[in-house]
Amino acid sequence: MKNFISVKDIPSLQYALDVAFDVKENPFAYQHLGKNKTMVLIFFNSSLRTRLSTQKAAMNMGMNTMVLNVNEDGWQLESDLGVVMDGDKPEHLLEAIPVIGQYCDVIGVRSFARFQNKEDDYSEKIISQFVEYAGVPVVSMEGATRHPLQSYADLVTIEEFKQKERPKVVLTWAPHPRALPQAVANSFVEWMRETDYELVVTHPEGYELAPDFIGNVKVEYNQKKAFEEADFIYAKNWASYSSYGQILSKDLSWTVNEEKMALTNNAKFMHCLPVRRNVVVTDGVIDSKNSIVVPQAANREVTAQAVLKMILEEL
Ligand code: CP
């Protein structure tokens, strides 16, 4: 594997699952692959899980790691092409990216949607420049439109907790005070579409995901109906795609609560975290025995390590 930007980069879903379960059981068995290799992790946005789990995964693989928080530690980086750089950004990505590539063997990048320009976001303007100019493999640690390390961990978690071969998995929109990117929802749907699970997406009208991501997945606008007989409830907020980046609703009747969970098939509750308690999900649900948000987050280390193993094997 050269880069890890979307589900399309893995050889197959089954192979990715096999690698993940192998590194989970044998976390230190492949340190020879990463010996004397370095991963640089570049953050344009905040992180808790992605930063720690990816660093830990790289260390498990025997790699050295360096972290750059662009907006705090480094020069502000210009990403527009052909601009007269007489503003507040003293360095261009066109130099910064290949220079970073000189110092490492793998680059991880986090760059969220900025909601200033839909085309820039949906063309992955930042991550695609890293892929083009880095000269080393690039791992998305969440781009503008996808969060593949999260979705891979979500898949592993569902495989670990499922009670039947073809579980019903429901992705539900939930309210939030801030405008959040569609990346987690897009990516979750993209990965789930590669499985044979029954996938249902529920959200208020106006929150339809981009056509390329939702494809022909069933959308149920009645949240309670969607929850019926579900085996997994995955909650997430996202801002509108059609009214790009806008908050159209903060309706707390979409909060995941005990009454709605009672409609399910004793479903497990999932969320990528961080989560706003009693806005996205009630304390009663996230503190229940059916909440698997912590093992889900733990699998972030596993899948980051699996990605690094697949990349290092081909260096
Ligand atoms: N789920 C996730 O990516 O968490 P962080 O934003 O804390 O990295």
Automatic annotation (TrEMBL):
Coiled coil ranges (UniProt) are none
- SUPFAM superfamilies, from UniProt? Aspartate/ornithine carbamoyltransferase (SSF53671)
This protein's record includes keyword Transferase: yes
Q: Which residues belong to any copy of the Aspartate/ornithine carbamoyltransferase carbamoyl-P binding domain?
A: 2-160
Record's keyword annotation contains Transferase:
yes
Give the residues the record marks as binding N(2)-succinyl-L-ornithine: 142, 176, 236, 276
Looking up InterPro entries in the UniProt record yields: ArgF'-like (IPR043696), Asp/Orn_carbamoyltranf_P-bd (IPR006132), Asp/Orn_carbamoylTrfase (IPR006130), Asp/Orn_carbamoylTrfase_sf (IPR036901), Asp_carbamoyltransf_Asp/Orn-bd (IPR006131)
Aspartate/ornithine carbamoyltransferase Asp/Orn-binding domain boundaries = 184-310
Pfam families membership: OTCace, OTCace_N
Can you name one GO molecular function term for this protein? amino acid binding
Q: Which family does it belong to?
A: Belongs to the aspartate/ornithine carbamoyltransferase superfamily. SOTCase family.
Q: What is this protein called?
A: N-succinylornithine carbamoyltransferase
- What is the species listed in this Swiss-Prot or TrEMBL entry? Maribellus comscasis
Lineage, top ranks: Bacteria, Pseudomonadati, Bacteroidota, Bacteroidia, Marinilabiliales
